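Contributing new records

If you add data, match the layout below exactly. Sequence lines come first and carry their own label; structure lines follow with theirs. Keep one chain per record. Anything else will be rejected by the validation script.
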Amino acid sequence: QVQLVESGGGLVQPGGSLRLSCAASGFTLDNYAIGWFRQAPGKEREGVSCISASDGSTYYVDSVKGRFTISRDNAKNMVYLQMNSLKPEDTAAYYCATYRGTFYRLWYRWNWAREYDSWGQGTQVTVSA
């Protein structure tokens, strides 16, 4: 069974850090670009970051550039999202998913949720004092 499982969320104060993990079972991640998305209550799902399968290219939404870092460890079948300098507006449920779109379109479709499947169940991140 193809499955992604997120972990690492929690409650953190503004300015704090968390590292989210995305673990795959039933398939190997190294053949797929992996994206992180988030969704806050009452808001649409937003693409946060993506890492390609081929050359490790990374993509970020402007609001997290310089604060978040996506990485992958193919040997462990894991993808990570290191989140530093967290802000209250980062509060959301965070999801990872596999990109199923065309490779050469990744650079401009990486944040299109409809290009992804195998969504995990999500992990909650709450940034609050």
